[in-house]
Specification:
By secondary structure, the protein is mainly alpha-helical. The chain has one domain. The protein starts with a helix and ends with a helix.
Length: 139
């Protein structure tokens, strides 16, 4: 069983940077009242996370599934830690009339509630990818 650790660390960095940027942009859209765009940005973040995870599965098989789940766990945890920073950054970029309506601080939701959708999506996509690779004899 191969474990693509180096690629997993690179994917962790990419997922974290992309996820943090997505949080900043989606918070800005929420603050401006454009919830539809915020949801699209968050969907793009999830698609990028799943694509990175599937790439790890193609490189490492079942070991890649383990690395992909670890990558998703790490990326969502770092994003969860940086959530107040993302909202503060978005608030700093908001127009002055909206800045008065933005609360001073936010509270983080519980981590499992925050990351459950991401981890389930990555786990399902990775397992489905690896089972498909086994069924079709892909190496």
């Amino acid at each position: 069983m191969r474990f693509p650790i180096g690629l997993g660390l690179a994917c962790l960095a990419a997922a974290t940077v992309f996820g943090f940027g997505s949080e900043v942009f989606s918070a800005g859209f929420f603050y401006s009242g454009d919830e539809g765009r915020a949801q699209v940005v968050l969907l793009g973040r999830l698609v990028a996370l799943v694509a990175l995870a599937v790439m790890l599965v193609f490189r490492g098989g079942w070991g890649g599934v383990v690395v992909a789940l670890t990558m998703a766990l790490g990326a969502t945890f770092i994003e969860w830690l940086l959530l107040p920073v993302a909202f503060d950054w978005a608030a700093a970029q908001a127009p002055p009339e909206l800045a008065r309506q933005i609360p001073d601080g936010i509270t983080r939701p519980p981590y499992l509630l925050w990351a459950a959708g991401d981890l389930l999506s990555v786990g399902f996509a990775c397992t489905l990818t690896q089972v498909g690779r086994m069924l079709f004899g892909m190496k």
